[in-house]
């Protein structure tokens, strides 16, 4: 039961809390920090690079299929979902690292898992509530995709360290490869 609580219930609750908080306290329009990315994706500004990255390519498809208002609304909703995923990944990273640091021993396992669960949830909330992440949450941008790839690589690296799973190592390396190709 404790494993189910720390691996599914707390992250799902954290994701729902992040989406609610972003919906209530988010910037009413497009934040100035993501204007350029959105204008490039909409085709209003020229590309900065010779080869467009994956995020801009996906956003361009969205703008070509939908009217501007609908595309911006969908991009805002997707940004909130991605930042909620940031919270879940940050929780998994914090919890995994604390389990690795605490190790195994004569400690009370149930008490240790409760403490890890609470501290990791607080750390994830503080990470998502940080100003740079909060600004990125206002609209889908290529920077948001980059942060997602970094967090995916970190989360699967921690899982690899915890469970020695080759699949986790391969997913972490794939995320790092995508990140390198995007930069």
Strand content: under 5%
Pattern of helices and strands:
HHHHHHHH
Helical content (DSSP H or I, runs of 4+): over 70%
The helix count comes to 8
Structural class: mainly alpha
Contiguous low-pLDDT stretches (5 residues minimum) are none
- The overall strand count is 0
Mean pLDDT equals 77
* Biggest pleated-sheet summary: none
Overall shape: it is globular
N→C terminal distance? 42 Å
Write the layout of secondary structure elements.
Blueprint lengths: L1 H24 L9 H7 L12 H12 L2 H35 L6 H20 L2 H6 L5 H22 L2 H17 L1
What does this structure look like?
This protein is mainly α and 183 residues long. Helix content is 78%, strand content 0%. The chain has eight helices and no strands. The chain has helices at 2-25, 35-41, 54-65, 68-102, 109-128, 131-136, 142-163, 166-182. Helix 4 runs antiparallel to helix 5 (109-128) and helix 7 (142-163) packs antiparallel against helix 8. The longest helix has 35 residues, at 68-102. The protein is globular and about 60 Å long. The model has no long low-confidence stretch (mean pLDDT 77).
Descriptive key words:
183 residues; mainly alpha; 78% helix
Give a brief outline of the structure.
The protein has 183 residues and is mostly helical.
